Amino acid sequence: MSIKSVEILDEGLNVFWSNNSLTCYPWFWLKDHSENKNDLHPDTKQRQIDSFTKTLEYNVFKVWLDEDSKNVFIEWNDKTQSYLSFDLLETMAKPRLPQSNSIDSSNCWNTPSEIKDFPEMTYQEVMSESGLKKWLMNIKRVGFVLVTGAPATPEATKELMERMAYIRSSIFGGFSVWDNKLDSPDDTAFTSLAIEPHTDGTYVHDAPGLQTLHCIKRDSIGGENQLVDGLAIAEKMRHEFSDAFEILCNVNIPGRYIKPDTYLEARRPLFRINNKSEVIQVSFNNHDRAPFRLENDQMNKFYDAYKIFHNLANDSSRQFEFMLDPGKVLTFDNWRLLHARSSLSGYRQLCGGYHNHEDFESRLRILQ
Ligand SMILES: [Fe+2]
């Protein structure tokens, strides 16, 4: 939007926009947000201006618009200059706090049949120039993506993952290769046992954002994977079980991971929401839930609410079930989808790892 004119007031600068709206920006804010290279480093975009240890002189001498550079220039009485771009002023035209990212619920799915445009693409496509954006958009839209035709090797899987961002390290290492025949497995994931729908990392403060799995060798029966849209359950509970939804937004549920040399524990509500009540993250792992106790009436209400979520997540009609085969790489949003696995017999070898959620968000911002 362009600026028609500006007006100097005692309390700040009035900006008259081309759509006939008006914004008044306080002088101190304008100086603090100056994009002059001495105030904001042009390369790092980090603030250089010292707004607080010395008294800022913000008696204004003159203000002018530069239509070529699309900046508003301010000259202060001490002869220093600030400037702010029309874009920044427009973005900040309404008072706003940075919003915590919420998950877009417009494509949440209650059953696999509700998944529009099944998120499947070939390895060749995802490794192409424009493929990464589509891969990311699929995850953003429905919470997961399946890549077919991948070479069934750890190297190719790692290369695919690193196309997005560096791989996150965790208690299980970084990029890993494992099978279901370990002598002393660290987690049920590394066995042949069935695992109920869950999200990973309820025992760490910052749960893994994306998880990638590739079964590179399979000589087994069973072991089907299931995915459930936790966001769809959240929205269903918000509308149909509002008291239970409220409880699951407020009770900090502890998760834990205990090994001889490790004792991880973290807590957060099953539904983490922002100040507009939009869901930012779903966290649920009944296997890893640590002991806690509320007042008896609150505890009973919590169990009732948790049971509703548990039973919806375990309702097979809500689950997308498939077999991870060599060549098929699954990546899903661990802050949104729950994953599960049926028990299996025989041998299989998998590889994969995690990405941080902020790196997924960063890549999307850059590519969009
Ligand atoms: Fe898991």
In short:
The chain has 368 residues and is an alpha+beta fold.
Question: Which features does this protein show?
Answer:
2 domains, four-stranded antiparallel sheet, 9 helices, alpha+beta, Double-stranded beta-helix, NE0471 N-terminal domain-like, 368 residues, 20 strands, six-stranded mixed sheet, binds fe (ii) ion, single chain
Q: Name the beta content range.
A: 25-35%
Which topology of the largest domain does CATH recognise? Double-stranded beta-helix
> Runs with pLDDT <50, length 5+?
none
CATH class of the largest domain: Alpha Beta
**N-to-C order of helices and strands:** EEEHEEEHEHHEHEEEEHHEEEEHEEEEH
Helix content: 10-25%
Number of strands: 20
Q: Can you tell me the CATH superfamily of the largest domain? A: Clavaminate synthase-like
Instruction: Specify the CATH architecture of the largest domain.
Output: 4-Layer Sandwich
Instruction: Please tell me the overall pLDDT.
Output: 94
Structural class: alpha+beta
Strand order of the largest sheet: 7-8-18-11-20-9
**Ligand set:** fe (ii) ion
Please characterize this protein's 3D structure.
The chain is of the alpha+beta class and 368 residues long. It has two domains: 3-91, NE0471 N-terminal domain-like (2-Layer Sandwich), CATH 3.30.2020.30; 102-368, Clavaminate synthase-like (Double-stranded beta-helix). It is built from nine helices and 20 strands. It has helices at 27-32, 86-91, 123-126, 131-142, 154-164, 230-240, 242-250, 296-313, 357-367; strands at residues 3-8, 12-17, 22-26, 60-66, 71-76, 81-85, 120-122, 144-148, 176-179, 195-198, 210-222, 225-229, 253-259, 262-268, 271-273, 279-282, 320-322, 329-333, 337-341, 344-355. The chain has a six-stranded mixed sheet. It has a four-stranded antiparallel sheet with strand order 10-19-12-17. Strand 1 and strand 2 form a beta hairpin. The chain is elongated, with a radius of gyration of 26 Å. It starts with a strand and ends with a helix. The model has no long low-confidence stretch (mean pLDDT 94).
